[in-house]
């Protein structure tokens, strides 16, 4: 069977959740036994989002093979419980770079290189790449941006051409729009959707399915009206009402029979969906037996998407522990000696987030000290781990000027320093230590107890590392390196064995957490926070009883 292609476009406004809809449809098709993947085409000119800051783009998601990608790929992996790769995220920058490089090599000698056909041919080649690999029955392609944007036009055009090149039953277009509710008129309005579909039609594309984001239920009458004006069948007008959790959206799409409509168009018959594992997760998520409060200390905490994978990993780990995890954002830039007690009081666990640059660094160090001295469960990720080392070097080893050379190039005590192969690197894009690397665990460590095996693999995104010149001194003073890369000896994990739960990791465990496969350190951290919470509450009760 040749692969089937679903294209997902968006209209009316941005941020409608094309990624969640794409993931939910893919989940339903996967649950019927089909091999499904999802790819995203982003209209911007950056080759990848690796050099964008979270204000521009939210989190940068890293794949196993070391691609810095759009955060929607995180949703694809979490919903499908599969790995994506470099091929799953294409940007205009990548397309142009390929075409211009080919032009320089003489691939188009004598020809004028143009958007049509050269750019659109390269887009089409990439749109079909995963489908042609033979690994998938269905490839869902999410087109970034909103219909009508100048920059996404070549993607829409390539999709239009493919609709004619592929057999009719192999290709399908979904258009996701907003049906706004006007409270003054007490009415849902269909006009923006009509206009949005008209824009798509002007570009030569007729959607097969309309998915309407809405705050209120769509009446049959409104569905009929949308079908009539937008040229789709009434049963292909799908309601997507706001959900309490994104993980419920596959169930909602199932109720709307989205999967059946897609299969019908593709002429496919499959088994009924098996969503037992997913339902089990939703049941655990919806019926917590306890609750904890953890601090997320970072400099982008006011942005909802900056630490997306960490927040999702807490949801998975919470469900695994039957515990509601309340994540309290603590802005590292405003964390000082004077307010650290007040800001972190009542926290059952403290997570220090990854990051780059100087802003908020001292605040992170203060938070580490608080967690270490008060014996609050501590979890440092990447820069968070590096700051745990800086804090220990300063306050336990007495090296008061200990610092990372990322912000203080000439410090006398560079406990965190640039990796050797980074010292000659000047290009910024895609040159960090990226993707999956192995890590060997010490057998009598917290990490080993958490993972239950000696060799693990996690994803990375960093240029700096723990300086091995300090390992012995740290060790003697009580901070152990319990995980190392077996090939390079790079320190990957630090722990303080005398602390109830203190772990810092150079890698990013959050990227691999999924509802059906929650990440073990997050699960253990939530459990440690629950224990801290119980003990703490018990103490308070005991104290007040006295
Ligand atoms: N800035 C640090 C480095 O490059 C940490 C990176 C991170 O937290 N992802 O090593």
> What's the gyration radius in Å?
25 Å
What's the overall geometry? globular
Helical content class: 25-40%
Q: How much strand?
A: 15-25%
Give the termini separation.
74 Å
The averaged pLDDT comes out at 95
Strand order of the largest sheet: 13-12-14-15-23-22-21-18-19
Biggest beta sheet summary: 9 strands, mixed
Bound molecules: glutamine
Q: pLDDT under 50 segments (min length 5)?
A: 540-546
Count of distinct strands:
23
Helix tally equals: 18
Secondary-structure-based class equals alpha/beta
Question: How would you describe what is shown here?
Answer:
The chain has 546 residues and is an alpha/beta fold. The protein is 37% helix and 22% strand. The strands form five sheets. The protein has a nine-stranded mixed β-sheet with strand order 13-12-14-15-23-22-21-18-19, sandwiched between helices. The protein has a seven-stranded parallel β-sheet with strand order 5-2-6-1-7-10-11, sandwiched between helices. A three-stranded mixed β-sheet has the order 16-17-20, covered by helices on one side. A hairpin with a 6-residue loop joins strand 22 (491-495) and strand 23 (502-505). Helix 14 crosses helix 15.
């Amino acid at each position: 069977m040749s692969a089937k292609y679903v294209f997902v476009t968006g209209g009316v406004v941005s941020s409608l959740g094309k990624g969640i809809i794409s993931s939910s449809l893919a989940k339903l098709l996967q649950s019927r036994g089909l091999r499904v993947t999802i790819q995203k085409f982003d209209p911007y000119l950056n080759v990848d989002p690796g050099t964008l800051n979270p204000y521009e783009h939210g989190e940068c998601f890293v794949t196993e093979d070391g691609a810095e990608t759009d955060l929607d790929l995180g949703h694809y992996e979490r919903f499908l419980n599969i790995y994506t790769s470099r091929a799953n995220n294409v940007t205009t920058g990548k397309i142009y770079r390929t075409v211009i490089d080919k032009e320089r090599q003489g691939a188009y000698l004598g020809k004028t290189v143009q958007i049509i056909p050269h750019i659109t041919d390269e887009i089409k080649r990439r749109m079909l790449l995963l489908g042609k690999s033979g690994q998938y029955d269905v490839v869902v392609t999410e087109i970034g941006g909103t219909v009508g944007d100048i920059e996404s036009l070549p993607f829409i055009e390539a999709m239009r051409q493919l609709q004619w090149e592929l057999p009719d039953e192999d290709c399908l277009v979904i258009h996701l729009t907003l049906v706004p509710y006007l409270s003054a008129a007490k009415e849902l309005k269909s006009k923006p959707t009509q206009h949005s579909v008209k824009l798509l039609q002007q570009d030569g594309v007729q959607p097969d399915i309309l998915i309407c984001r809405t705050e209120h239920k769509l009446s049959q009458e409104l569905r009929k009206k949308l079908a009539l004006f937008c040229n789709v069948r009434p049963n292909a007008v799908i309601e997507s009402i706001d959900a309490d959790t994104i993980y419920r959206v596959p169930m909602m799409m199932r109720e709307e029979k989205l999967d059946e409509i897609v299969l019908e168009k593709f002429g496919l018959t499959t088994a009924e969906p098996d969503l037992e594992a997913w339902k089990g997760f939703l049941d655990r998520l919806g019926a917590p037996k306890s609750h904890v409060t953890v601090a997320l200390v970072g400099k982008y905490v006011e942005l909802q998407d900056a630490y997306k994978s960490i927040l999702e990993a807490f949801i998975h780990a919470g469900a695994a522990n039957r515990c509601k995890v309340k994540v309290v954002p603590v802005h590292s830039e405003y964390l000082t000696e004077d307010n650290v007690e007040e800001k972190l009081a009542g926290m059952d666990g403290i997570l220090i987030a990854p990051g780059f640059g100087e802003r908020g660094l001292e605040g992170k160090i203060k938070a580490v000290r608080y967690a270490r001295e008060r014996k609050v469960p501590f979890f440092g990720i990447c820069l968070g781990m590096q700051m745990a080392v800086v804090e220990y070097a300063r306050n336990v080893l007495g090296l008061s000027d200990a610092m990372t050379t990322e912000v203080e190039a000439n410090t006398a005590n560079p406990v965190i320093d640039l990796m050797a192969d980074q010292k000659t690197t000047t290009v910024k894009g895609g040159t960090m230590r990226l993707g999956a690397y192995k890590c060997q665990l010490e057998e009598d460590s917290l990490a080993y107890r958490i993972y239950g095996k000696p060799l693990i693999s996690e994803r990375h995104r960093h240029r700096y590392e723990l300086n091995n010149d300090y390992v012995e001194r740290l060790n003697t003073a009580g901070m152990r390196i319990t995980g190392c890369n077996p090939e390079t000896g790079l320190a990957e994990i630090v722990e303080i064995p005398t602390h109830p739960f203190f772990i810092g990791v150079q890698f990013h465990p959050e990227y691999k957490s999924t509802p059906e496969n929650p990440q073990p350190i997050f699960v253990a951290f939530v459990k440690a926070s629950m224990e801290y919470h119980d003990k703490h509450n018990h103490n308070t009760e005991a104290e007040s009883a006295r």
